[in-house]
Write a structure and sequence with these properties.
With about 325 residues, the protein is of the alpha/beta class. It has two domains: about 15-200, Rossmann fold (3-Layer(aba) Sandwich); about 210-310, GMP Synthetase, Chain A, domain 3 (2-Layer Sandwich). About 40% of the residues lie in helices and about 15% in strands. The protein contains eleven helices and ten strands. The strands form two sheets. The chain has a five-stranded parallel beta sheet with strand order 3-2-1-4-5, with helices on both faces. Strands 6, 7, 8, 9 and 10 form a five-stranded mixed beta sheet that branches. Strand 7 and strand 8 (about 260-270) form a beta hairpin. Helix 1 (about 15-30) crosses helix 2 and helix 10 runs antiparallel to helix 11. The chain is globular, with a radius of gyration of 20 Å. The two termini are about 25 Å apart. Xanthosine-5'-monophosphate binds near residues 206 and 210. Xanthosine-5'-monophosphate binds near residues 155, 204 and 210.
Length: about 325
């Protein structure tokens, strides 16, 4: 069953919100629902729609999986507190790192994160809360790329013939599945969220694990997190659609203090795009590239090489894993 697309141009955000609030209320009835907020525009929009529909019968969690960016859990919880939405942080770092241990294949990494999220962490939360429904922010692009076999997005089940009720013990409601990213941004703005949220750069469900090629250990995630922080600081004024740092698996010979240093490689990507289906590398000024390289080799221990990706999507994809 494939959702019919509502393009950003055809979307009437106020009508869409009214309709989805009604759908969620009807589906959940007098029961309870839960959802995971990551702070991305999709899960943020779903959180607000769900709270409009269900009030305190929706319990919102931020799952600290250990693979988020610097300061992310605290920042998101405080933004939603200001919006009147209580969010509970669940520390699940050990669950995710044990599931990722020794896993290097990209699709197996994605699958390990999916299983940990839905079967381990969420099934437990559903049991504890008594909820029957999980609200989540799957969008049409997630479905398209998963069904096409390009990348297994962490949040796609029904469209692959997987029944979440049978697999995990709860039903999933996807209010945004007819939209793409640009449509979700319009809905999020109409829901009264701050620009910081509705214009927030996309960030993948598998988080920094999608930006570490090979095993995502706590140490390697830390390298990607530091490099990401620098790239985000330096490119925040660029107006690019999405930018990131990727830690490669291969090492290369470099030199430090006059000695050979067989060190780490970071790849920077910055994309211009409207809906993530196609993307072009941002034509960044050379001075910015220069600054990125010197900050990353200077501030991220072990890095001796920084490159910039100049490939289009397709055939590249936006994330490296
Ligand atoms: P790719 O790498 O497939 O990414 O070109 C397209 C867009 O989707 C984001 N992305 C994800 N989003 N779950 C998500 O919610 C995922 O598993 C996932 N993988 C990639 C990516 O950041 C880009 O914006």
């Amino acid at each position: 069953m494939k959702a019919v697309e509502i393009t950003a141009k055809d979307l009437r955000p106020e009508d869409f919100i009214k309709e989805k609030v009604k759908d969620i209320s009807q589906a959940v009835g007098q029961g309870l629902a839960i959802n995971a907020l990551s702070g991305g525009v999709d899960s943020s929009a779903v959180t607000m729609l769900g709270h409009k529909a269900l009030g305190d019968r929706l319990k919102t969690y931020f799952i600290n999986n250990g693979i988020m960016r610097q300061g992310e859990p605290e920042e998101i919880v405080s933004i939603f507190k200001r919006l009147g939405v209580p969010v509970e942080v669940i520390d699940a770092q050990d669950n995710f790192f044990s599931a990722l241990k020794g896993v290097t294949d990209p699709e197996k990494k994605r699958e390990a994160i999916t299983q940990t999220f839905y079967k381990d962490v969420f099934a437990e939360l559903v049991k504890k809360s008594g909820a029957k429904y999980l609200l989540q922010g799957t969008i049409l692009t997630d479905v398209d790329e998963t069904v096409a076999g390009i990348k297994r997005q962490h949040n796609v089940f029904m469209q692959l013939g997987i029944d979440p009720q049978a697999a995990f013990g709860y039903k999933i409601i996807e209010p945004l599945v007819e939209l793409r990213k640009d449509g979700v941004r319009k809905v999020a703005a109409a829901l009264g969220m701050p620009e910081k949220i509705y214009n927030r750069m996309p960030f993948p469900g598998p988080a920094l694990a999608a930006r570490v090629i090979g095993e995502a250990t706590p140490e390697r995630i830390k390298v990607a997190r530091l490099a990401t922080m620098i790239v985000e600081e330096e490119l925040s004024a660029s107006r690019a659609f999405q930018y990131m740092a990727i830690l490669h698996q291969d090492r290369v010979t470099g030199m430090r203090d006059g000695k050979r240093d067989f060190g780490l490689q970071i790849e920077i990507r910055s994309w211009d795009s409207t809906d993530a289906r196609k993307a072009q590398p941002t034509r960044l000024p050379y001075e910015i590239l220069d600054k990125l390289a010197s900050r990353i080799v200077g501030e991220v221990p072990g890095v001796v090489s920084v490159t910039y990706n100049i490939t289009q999507k397709p055939p590249s994809t936006i994330e490296a894993v």
